[in-house]
């Protein structure tokens, strides 16, 4: 049996790379021939499936984590030696370690470097908490049978930060995107009329750094008042964005449309010319893959694995995380569109869901057979 644990709902429409990765695993498992169960959080009330154990409701991780301990206590006698347990947070593996010992194989995925979210919330106060968490993380990683990082950059950082030997052997498998939602319509490159229409798509959080996106627009509007920015997203940074917009000289050039359902992402992308990623950190951002599939140039900070997928000067630009540099990148993308020089990405085929998920399914099979 393959057990996949994630604090999200594979039957919901939540945006974000982690949510899309979980849905991708769900779709791949359905066609893999493997016996599996998903241990998830319910984020919708209309759909269910017999192979999903909903152990909590809502997106709060603490609620899911407490329910995870209870799930393992209840199932501790059902675990078999060749069962595979796939966790997406290192500390989610502890209920399994403590209640089931060495029975079963453990796979831990890293969709970011540990501690980044904690520092984003607490700042310098996070240091002592992170030191304690790091000690437990090293123990969890040392006991795991396999590790997966979604970018080699994160793997190298974790190799130095957490524990060298396990991460030196870790697999690097990028996060997937939902290719099927793009297959319903014919995608063409951006027209000249879209060349000053910029899209920010993502959760409004410390990680995504929406203030930098807004500051970049302000810099652009000072240079050329024809630019507009659409912000598609919601989250804990919503109130801060409202305050910033209230005092921004470029507020009239911003359209904040809130959260967009997952299946509407292709049409949203094709209504804009340029995609902006202003994140402080990422692992393998889904929006970059979606933009490349939609034939839209991406202007991004140098985070995660974007350097592996964006062909600088052809499918986008990777810039320093300051407004003038990102504004320069967007203007370069504008000129690229107006001159008809945008070149569709050669990486889209490599990024297909089948290509990526087949690697994960093969890893499940190897662990189950070991």
Verbal overview:
With 370 residues, the chain is α/β, with parallel strands linked by helices. It has helices at 17-30, 61-75, 94-100, 116-122, 126-143, 152-161, 164-168, 210-223, 238-246, 265-270, 286-293, 306-309, 323-338, 353-369, and strands spanning 2-5, 36-42, 52-57, 84-87, 105-110, 146-149, 171-172, 197-201, 228-232, 254-256, 274-277, 298-301, 316-319. The strands form 2 sheets. A 7-stranded parallel sheet has the order 3-2-1-4-5-6-7. It has a 6-stranded parallel sheet with strand order 10-9-8-11-12-13, sandwiched between helices. The longest helix has 18 residues, at 126-143.
List its traits.
seven-stranded parallel beta sheet; 14 helices; globular; 16% strand; six-stranded parallel beta sheet; 13 strands; 370 residues; alpha/beta
Helix percentage: 40-55%
The strand count comes to 13
Report the C-alpha radius of gyration, rounded.
Answer: 21 Å
Average pLDDT rating: 92
* Derived structural class: alpha/beta
The total of helices stands at 14
**Major β-sheet, in short?**
7 strands, parallel
For this structure, the quaternary state is single chain
- Distance linking N and C termini: 13 Å
Which spans of ≥5 residues are poorly predicted at pLDDT below 50? none
Basic shape = globular
List the helices and strands and how they pair.
Layout: E1 2-5, H1 17-30, E2 36-42, E3 52-57, H2 61-75, E4 84-87, H3 94-100, E5 105-110, H4 116-122, H5 126-143, E6 146-149, H6 152-161, H7 164-168, E7 171-172, E8 197-201, H8 210-223, E9 228-232, H9 238-246, E10 254-256, H10 265-270, E11 274-277, H11 286-293, E12 298-301, H12 306-309, E13 316-319, H13 323-338, H14 353-369
Parallel strand pairs: 1-2, 1-4, 2-3, 4-5, 5-6, 6-7, 8-9, 8-11, 9-10, 11-12, 12-13
Helix pairs in contact: 1-14, 2-3, 8-13
């Amino acid at each position: 049996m393959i057990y996949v644990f994630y604090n999200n709902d594979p039957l919901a429409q939540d945006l974000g790379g982690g949510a899309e990765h979980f849905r991708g695993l769900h779709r791949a498992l359905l066609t893999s021939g493997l016996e599996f169960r998903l241990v998830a959080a319910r984020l919708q009330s209309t759909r269910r499936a017999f192979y999903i154990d909903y152990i909590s409701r809502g997106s709060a991780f603490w609620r899911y984590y407490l329910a995870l301990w209870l799930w393992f206590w209840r199932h501790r006698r059902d675990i078999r030696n060749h069962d595979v347990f796939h966790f997406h947070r290192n500390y989610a593996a502890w209920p399994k370690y403590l209640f089931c010992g060495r029975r079963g194989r453990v796979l831990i995925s890293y969709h970011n470097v540990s501690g980044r979210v904690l520092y984003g919330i607490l700042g310098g106060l996070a240091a002592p908490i992170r030191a304690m968490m790091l000690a437990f993380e090293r123990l969890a990683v040392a006991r795991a049978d396999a590790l997966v990082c979604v970018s080699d950059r994160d793997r190298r950082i974790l190799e130095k930060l957490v524990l060298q030997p396990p991460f030196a052997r870790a697999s690097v498998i990028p996060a997937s995107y939902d290719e099927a939602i793009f297959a319903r319509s014919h995608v063409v490159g951006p027209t000249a009329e879209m060349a000053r229409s910029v899209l920010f798509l993502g959760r409004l959080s410390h990680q995504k750094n929406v203030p930098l996106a807004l500051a970049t627009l302000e810099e652009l509007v000072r240079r050329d008042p024809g630019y507009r920015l659409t912000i598609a997203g919601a989250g804990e940074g919503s109130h801060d964005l409202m305050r910033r917009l209230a005092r921004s000289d470029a507020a009239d050039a911003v359209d904040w449309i809130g959260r967009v359902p997952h299946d509407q992402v292709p049409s949203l992308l094709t209504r804009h010319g340029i995609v902006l990623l202003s994140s402080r950190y990422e692992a393998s951002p889904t929006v970059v893959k979606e933009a490349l599939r939609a034939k839209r140039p991406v202007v991004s900070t140098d985070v995660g694995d974007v350097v592996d997928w964006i062909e600088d000067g052809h499918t986008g630009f990777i810039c320093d995380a300051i407004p003038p540099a990102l504004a320069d990148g967007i203007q370069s993308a504008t000129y690229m569109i107006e001159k008809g020089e945008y070149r569709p990405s050669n990486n889209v085929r490599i990024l297909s869901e089948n290509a990526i998920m087949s690697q994960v399914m093969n890893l499940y099979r190897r662990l189950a057979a070991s």
